[in-house]
Design a protein that fits this description.
The chain has helices at about 20-40, 45-65, 75-85, 90-110, 120-130, 130-155, 160-175, 225-240, 250-260, 340-345, 350-365, 375-380, 405-410, and strands spanning about 185-195, 205-210, 215-220, 270-275, 280-290, 295, 305, 325-330, 335-340, 390-395. The chain is an alpha+beta fold. The protein folds into 2 domains: about 45-165, no CATH class; about 180-400, PPM-type phosphatase domain (Phosphatase 2c, domain 1). GO terms for molecular function: phosphatase activity. This is Serine/threonine-protein phosphatase.
């Protein structure tokens, strides 16, 4: 899945991992406006669209009989595809009937132009004929278009509407992971990758900042890629209303109750929730069957240690479950890493070995270039491509050294 990185205002942001660039956002907005213009303004009704398709078929018939070389039968495939894109199933059936009628009328007349002997016009005559292979291709295209139209008819949408609705829903839900106005010295970044490069993933991140409290919820839905993407979209919308609205100790139990109520046969998810007091640095972390957090302390630049959270089982398995939390304090220079099992699991590799690999990769960052852009670097460095994987990095910048020239200048300002 596309991914994202966010940093505190006033800091240099890492390269975004799913949020498009300004040019990408502009092009996406222009595309959505063009689709809206085509469907709601220029082609406002199904009847009008069917008349347009009819006009295209009639034009093909006229040109096919008067100038055969300029009207191959394959051109009708474009009409069929456009009909499947813009028409509902009933109107599409009418258009296909018109196309069939046009072919029944034109084919005998076109094929009658083929000479029975050799002559200088043989090539032109053969080009003007319509052979059974072309007709078979048109029939195959029509069959595929009908299947796609039937699928969209079940949703009550057609053309680009279904795509636009789904993309807009995904983008709106992803916006729930963005944190704005996070005060210095706190910084938060996250990155998500989907299995096999799919557009949807079973992992999602939710973040909520209000006042001095920051809540971060990382969820890994059972399954991977697009197969888990629909359930992840539904859960991210529902859980987005819970994050920040409930006390820390009630978030995971409420999320568990909601998932149980869905009665999905494959309905379980692992999750980790961190609630941070931005004023004091105190945090509480609760887990639902999730891998342990990684904790970094400022005094050990290259060392990250697992923080085992003796939480409850995965969400959606058992009712009336408690999810105990562990508490700690993030001092200046300290950091936490939240991640999903796709980051540390690999065929033939022990889970502990995967966690150690992630810890070493994080240590290389903290002892070298720093944590700016670390979520994107870590998810790309240690993750396999056959599973969804997510990394969230939350850290507190170290206090400036008053003895350092840059520290004195900052104090003076």
């Amino acid at each position: 899945m596309p991914t994202e990185s966010r940093t505190a205002p006033g800091r240099r942001a890492a390269a975004p991992t799913w949020v498009p660039s300004a040019a990408g956002e502009w092009l996406g907005e222009r595309r959505r406006r063009l689709v809206w213009l085509l469907q709601l303004r220029l082609l406002p009704s199904q009847t009008f669209r069917l008349w347009v398709g009819t006009g295209l078929v009639v034009c093909w018939v006229v040109v096919a009989l008067t100038a055969p070389r300029w009207a191959p039968a394959s051109a009708l495939s474009v009409v069929i595809v456009l009909g499947g894109y813009f028409l509902r199933l009933r109107q599409l059936a009418m258009l296909l009937f018109l196309v069939t009628t046009a072919l029944v009328y034109v084919v005998p007349r076109r094929n009658g132009l083929v000479p029975r002997g050799l002559g200088p016009d043989v090539v032109d005559a053969v080009q003007s004929s319509i052979n059974p292979t072309v007709l078979g291709v048109l029939a195959a295209v029509a069959g595929v278009v009908v299947l796609i139209a039937r699928s969209r008819e079940r949703l009550g949408v057609h053309g680009a509407q279904g795509e636009s609705m789904l993309v807009e829903l995904r983008d709106r839900l992803r916006a729930q992971s963005r944190v704005s106005g996070l005060p210095a010295p706190w910084r938060l970044e996250h990155a998500v990758r989907s299995a096999y490069g799919d557009g949807f993933a079973g992992d999602f991140v939710l973040a909520h900042h209000r006042g001095r409290r920051l809540d971060v919820l990382l969820v890994d839905v059972s399954g991977k890629g697009t197969a888990a993407g629909t359930r992840a979209l539904l859960l991210s919308g529902a859980y987005g209303g819970l994050v920040g609205a409930l006390p820390t100790e009630r978030l995971l139990p409420s999320a568990n109750d909601y998932l149980l109520g869905q009665r999905w046969p494959e309905g379980f998810a692992t999750a980790v929730h961190v609630s941070l007091d931005l004023a004091t640095g105190e945090y509480a972390a609760a887990s639902a069957g999730h891998p342990p957090l990684l904790r970094h302390r400022a005094g050990a630049p290259d060392r990250w240690v697992p923080v085992e959270v003796d939480g409850g089982p995965a969400l959606g398995l058992l009712p009336d479950v408690d999810f105990p939390s562990v508490r700690g304090v993030l001092e200046p220079g300290d950091a936490l890493i939240l991640y999903t099992d796709g980051v540390v699991e690999a065929p033939g590799r022990d889970l502990a070995a995967g966690i150690d690999l992630l810890a070493r990769a994080a240590g290389d960052l903290t002892s070298g270039p720093g944590l700016g852009g670390s979520a994107r670097r870590l998810v790309d460095a240690v993750a396999a491509e056959d599973d969804d994987r997510s990394v969230v990095v939350l850290w507190r910048d170290p206090e400036p050294d008053p003895s350092h020239p840059s520290g004195r200048e900052r104090d003076a300002s």
